[in-house]
Amino acid sequence: xxxxxxxxxxxxxxxxxxxxxxxxxxxxxxxxxxxxxxxxxxxxxxxxxxxxxxxxxxxxxxxxxxxxxxxxxxxxxxxxxxxxxxxxxxxxxxxxxxxxxxxxxxxxxxxxxxxxxxxxxxxxxxxxxxxxxxxxxxxxxxxxxxxxxxxxxxxxxxxxxxxxxxxxxxxxxxxxxxxxxxxxxxxxxxxxxxxxxxxxxxxxxxxxxxxxxxxxxxxxxxxxxxxxxxxxxxxxxxxxxxxxxxxxxxxxxxxxxxxxxxxxxxxxxxxxxxxxxxxxxxxxxxxxxxxxxxxxxxxxxxxxxxxxxxxxxxxxxxxxxxxxxxxxxxxxxxxxxxxxxxxxxxxxxxxxxxxxxxxxxxxxxxxxxxxxxxxxxxxxxxxxxxxxxxxxxxxxxxxxxxxxxxxxxxxxxxxxxxxxxxxxxxxxxxxxxxxxxxxxxxxxxxxxxxxxxxxxxxxxxxxxxxxxxxxxxxxxxxxxxxxxxxxxxxxxxxxxxxxxxxxxxxxxxxxxxxxxxxxxxxxxxxxxxxxxxxxxxxxxxxxxxxxxxxxxxxxxxxxxxxxxxxxxxxxxxxxxxxxxxxxxxxxxxxxxxxxxxxxxxxxxxxxxxxxxxxxxxxxxxxxxxxxxxxxxxxxxxxxxxxxxxxxxxxxxxxxxxxxxxxxxxxxxxxxxxxxxxxx
Length: 679
Description:
Blueprint: H1 2-25, H2 34-56, H3 58-63, H4 67-75, H5 92-112, H6 114-122, H7 135-158, H8 161-184, H9 209-233, H10 240-257, H11 265-287, H12 294-317, H13 326-352, H14 358-382, H15 391-416, E1 417-423, E2 426-433, E3 436-441, E4 444-450, H16 468-475, E5 481-485, E6 501-506, H17 509-518, H18 521-524, E7 528-533, H19 536-540, E8 548-553, H20 568-577, E9 578-587, H21 596-605, E10 609-612, H22 620-624, E11 632-636, H23 639-648, E12 652-653, H24 658-661
């Protein structure tokens, strides 16, 4: 029980700090989905180092001679507390990796060795399971699973980030204590134990190249598919809740596969069939366009569930029987996992560039899965275990079918695609359809312009002349300067008047390139237009105090508004840059989140007037012409400005209810996305 608690707590702390630190990094990188996948690549890289550490010292660990030195290794990271996430001026992926190494590297490395070291120590005790300590691998995954499930539902809603880290530091102290308690029970090799410990003698047996290749490929394909599914699920929103769904399913399949009672073929078949049934139901709901995130979560989650069950069950079936080979086994799993992650996070974007759509990740991972299952069959045949006679034919047929689907998807994409890019901040596509040129970020269209020369320069989509923001900008009195956070294709620049200065704050320079190369709205504006690249909060701090008459928040990462732009500290910055009586406008159209209550609570905390635009009703003809309904939220310190919105434009005054006032205000340290999520 002591060793299980040691491994469980170590894994729990490992995954909790993954989520906490990734959450802290999000604001600095525009809430990009690539923050989490980059963090995952770092975490798996450090896990690999942890396995190397344990593997190189496996003989000492097994004999027990190294045990007290390991306690110092675990205790030393305390000098790095509290963590300092130092930002560095490097490309985003490199900057995140450097930041993680400098702040989190040592404690994460110490925690990553827990499972392997504990299994080695257990063979030197009188524990009943000392001959097969691999059950601790399942205990490790159970700790990780609890960490994942508690973070978005218990930890994040209840505690701000400072409190989360404070609790984590205290729990790490308990982990150090458990390490010492476990060390006390380990018997050195020269101790007389009455035969209680495992006797290890003679040279360690060698593993065949075929078996090692199977371990590598099974682990690589499972991790590649995990990253591919994560990319698809976070295409429209990067948040811990969506991070943990695929990772939780991945860990569940590991727990089931490495449990003390292994999966029988019949049980594996039932679990896979259950996943396929869920996938079929979710696919039907998606085709019926059910207005919820649940069908997408269920569909992609079911695909990951079935594939990882097959891969991890195969990995458990291929594990060595000799305890001295466990270090090599887990090392190959770790190397394969890192390679699979790096393939999707780095390899596909670098090799395919702007053609590296999220579903291409899926296809690459799928082909790798098929190759891994083939490698498994070869390894099992070498061991004398039977395989299904039709397995090679089925695998080859599936590979051909998958390649065909990828080819058809590529043809469809290239047919309408004009340009695009895949950067750290998102996946962008410019395409022509039905006389309209569209700019798409992820799966969300962020700008539309007519292709016909005589119709160009007219704002469409959420920014058309009759939209709430269009009417505000058209009918408002004279203004000198306007700030817009989020560029898109520059649709709002169409409302610029002569003599006005419009500043667009855009995180990704690639968006400006696409907007200027393929759309005309920025160039046709009557106002003087300037695009300021970089994080809006940092760049706005450089602007003069009370510089703007209107500040418009239209910053979306696909269908997700970066939360660091919606905190009390962020609103305080906007108010300092806004002239007395000025207007803050927030675009809150979203399939996933209802941000009106969040902004109402923020407005109430700062004593501001709140107003919500009325519902738009558009005809089918208007929708076909590229117009879309939208929702906008206004904040102002001026009662006159609020009255003008309500009486002249038909907006509704919004007041915070008692229930809403009881909720915590969003701050840089505290955000509760569960309250805003549209289930």
